[in-house]
Amino acid sequence: SEAMRRSSFAATGSEETPAVPEDTEEEEINLSAEEPRLRRLQAQIEKFGPVNLLAPEEYSKLEERYQFLNEQMDDLLQAITSLGKAISKIDKESEKRFSETFEIMNTKFQEIFSRLFKGGEGKLVLTDPENLLESGVEVMVRPRGKKFQSITLLSGGEKALSAIALIIAACLIKPAPFLLFDEIDAPLDDRNTSYFLELVKEIDDYSQVILITHNKKTMQEVNSLIGITSNKTGTSTVVSVDLT
User: Which of 30, 69, 127, 204 could crosslink 136 through cysteines, CB 3.0-4.6 Å?
Assistant: First the structure.
């Protein structure tokens, strides 16, 4: 029994002895077989050239510069997108306002043209209705007894009267503080001058009108005359006459 206790104690109290690995022999390298590979690797290493010890630092600086430029490019792209949206919004608003103003101007021009010509018809036509911001405006008129044609094909007096109708139409839509007409009535005969002066009197309710003219009929209808005269050679004198 004592022998059994001793053998049991020896069995439970003893530690296992680790297995000793077998000695491994280094694998022999066949130099003659690996020589082509060695030369190839040496050639690749030589292609790298001399080693730059400052490469990590230079890489860090270039990476920082790249990130800075990349952020700047993102800002520019965002600015371009924002600007494009703003331009698109402005274009739409411009098209809307131009279209509204064009219709008002066309209606008023037709009215004034008919009054100046005592009949006939005049209208404004867009040269490119599909592209309002780039479109031109053609003045088409039809005096009594004639067909519709461009204002460029009219006689001198008809051209002047049509242009006057266009100017006065604009003045009646959005009156200015004062208007200066320089020899605007020069190509007109007495009858057309009378029609023109009727409209000038209407404009006079909204704007101060100054006419530079040599037309006697026009001078008879104004409120005051201001002229230049020479009483003596080489001397000019301003003469003002109130006709009200």
Answer: 127
Q: What is the pLDDT of residues 122-139, one digit of tens each?
A: 899 998 888 888 889 888
What does the CA dihedral 39, 44, 50, 54 come to, rounded to 10 degrees?
-140
> Which residue carries 């109708």 as its tokens?
165
Going by C-alpha positions, the residue among 159, 120, 162 that lies closest to residue 142 is: 120
Q: Report the run of H or E that residue 208 belongs to, with start and end.
A: strand 208-212
Short-list 109, 218, 213, CA closest to 171: 109
Of residues 29 and 168, the one with the higher pLDDT is: 168
Question: What DSSP designation does 17 have?
Answer: P
Q: Is the pTM of this model over 0.90?
A: no
Question: What's the CA gap between 137 and 147, in Å, rounded?
Answer: 19
